[in-house]
Amino acid sequence: MSRLPSPGPRESPHGMSLQGIQEIVADAAESGTPLRIAGESHWIDAGRPVRANRIASLTGHTGVVDYVPGDLTITVKGGTTLHGIEEVTAKEGQHFPLDPHGSSEGTIGATIATGSSGPMAHGFGAVRDLVLGVEFVTGDGRVVKGGGRVVKNVAGFDLVRLITGSWGTLGIVTEATLRLYSIASSHATLAVSITDERQLSARLDNVLNAAATPYSVELVDAATARHCGLAATTSILVELGGNAAAVEAQKDALSRTGVVHEVPRQVWTRLRTADAAGTAVFRVSALPAQIAELWTNTQRALAGIEGSMIHASAGLGVVRCILPAASATAELLRRMAGENRGSAIVCERLPSDLWPHVSPSVVSDTLSQRVKRAFDPLDILNPGIMGEFS
Question: Which CATH number is 320's domain given?
């Protein structure tokens, strides 16, 4: 898939302040100039095409605002990269257990805005479960805060969950407070080989019901396994963590589920970066109990497409498909929907000319329209990325 051309000048001065971001938004609002909100721009080609003349990047708005290791929380500016958060927290034996697809060079603001997660959502929850508080600048220049800097907050309207996954259409995330966890003293990554896919459902059940509490349980097809540096066979990848005794006990429990091999932890990094530039990506989801059927139906729909890869978060009921952009067609997505009736299909990346045919908008309902008008009345923040607001 070809990347979208840059919409225009990029504004990301070094050391950008909150006031500076407000001024950019206020200037855009006054002139009626739409803004393309960006972090490091690694995923700038995701979502529907954006009608914008300027890029407002948060790459200069970085750093730790507050870090209390004893509370297992950290507050960082929106342009701070996930790698930057890793470096700071690792010194205290802690980590932010979020591994969204892409790379650790992505920013926390973009991660929250796109609602991105990865395989560790199995054990730690999705991004919305790990963000305790947010600060963002609305389309009319206001600074809004939701949640807080502690694990327990008073009840009320959940602005954190509202802004998560809003794709920058309601506000620019300028600050986030995150929930941290202690780094385990011991880790192990196991691969459970599936030599007969007729046994897939039983093998998945055995792994998910084993006496273990895995961080991640990810099903990969042969092509994805090969990309990760493993033997080209369908496999269940399992990441374990804890003290040495706990990890050994869990490895022993999982060894009873089939042919199990310990593999390098680098497979997770390879999996995370599988959706390179020039690919189309979409997810198919259903109830976790239906994952084996969902997997089989998705494989059937993609049969014969050279270069395609499939992996699935088995405990979450989500199958993720990666294929060459040229292979993504409206007919393919209709076939996918036909094979998986009753499931949901969410597109991440598609050729720009395909969006109007397969998913013109997800914000045409009255509630979405009213929320948009409350936070971005002039529709200058990422216009079009989720569809058209009236």
Answer: 3.30.70.100
